[in-house]
Design a protein that fits this description.
There is one protein chain. The chain is mainly α. The chain has a single domain, classed as Serine Threonine Protein Phosphatase 5, Tetratricopeptide repeat, CATH 1.25.40.10. It has nine helices and no strands. The chain has helices at 17-36, 40-53, 56-60, 64-87, 91-104, 109-121, 125-135, 141-169, 181-204. Helix 4 (64-87) runs antiparallel to helix 5 (91-104), helix 4 (64-87) runs parallel beside helix 6 (109-121) and helix 6 (109-121) packs antiparallel against helix 7 (125-135).
Length: 205
């Protein structure tokens, strides 16, 4: 159902709370229809219109059942925006929309999951893992899959780092996952200083 077909041409300031929330919900439903058709840009336009009806000045005035009604429209729009943006590889924007929802509902599973996916795509594996674990439920196959992907990424990174540092410190050196980088730095610095000292000693002789 398109919003234009409802005849809601009244300025938002002249709408009652129920009318304004209802109009936003219509924009959201139009966005969902476009999303199902994989028309992501069109879907986002509808969600943005819905969010515009739920601006901060409006939300600040609400309490009780009206606040709950508004959030029931506004938060899904932000979550759906995040889903669209992830599909479009616009991960930082997706994280922003998830954070808006989490500011209202810190345990929102969809917001945590989508922020985790976006963070993982940006290479922020620790942040992604934290969100996935917070949202985790044993029956949630999606989160389990994402955690396995992260685990595989960490293992691949560990193996790559192991080969790099084996060449620097010798075949017997082992780099453990998430080993303290400061220790590695001082080891490398000490090795360079020893070489420099030996070179100077040899030159003096």
């Amino acid at each position: 159902m398109k919003l234009s077909s409802l005849g809601l041409t009244k300025p938002t300031n002249d709408m009652t709370v129920e009318e304004r929330i209802g109009a936003a919900d219509c924009w959201k439903m139009d966005g969902n229809a476009f999303f199902k058709e994989e028309k992501l840009e069109e879907a986002m336009q509808q969600y943005e219109m819905a969010i515009a009806y739920m601006g901060d000045d409006f939300m600040f005035q609400l309490y009780g059942k009206y606040q709950d009604m508004a959030l029931a429209v506004k938060n899904p729009c932000h979550l759906n925006m995040a889903a669209c943006l992830i599909k479009l590889d616009r991960y930082e924007e997706a994280i922003g929309h998830c954070c808006i929802v989490l500011a209202e509902d810190q345990n929102n599973v969809k917001a945590l999951f989508r922020r985790g996916k976006a963070s993982a795509a940006l290479g922020q594996t620790d942040a992604a893992q934290e969100d996935f674990l917070k949202a985790y439920a044993p029956e949630d196959k999606g989160i389990t899959r994402e955690l396995r992907i992260l685990a595989g990424h960490d293992d691949a990174l560990y193996q790559k780092q192991k080969e790099i540092y084996k060449g620097i410190f010798g075949a017997r050196s082992e780099l453990k996952p998430k080993q303290n980088w400061l220790i590695l730095f001082w080891q490398l610095l000490l090795s360079l200083l020893l070489r420099l000292f030996k070179h100077k000693t040899h030159k003096a002789d």
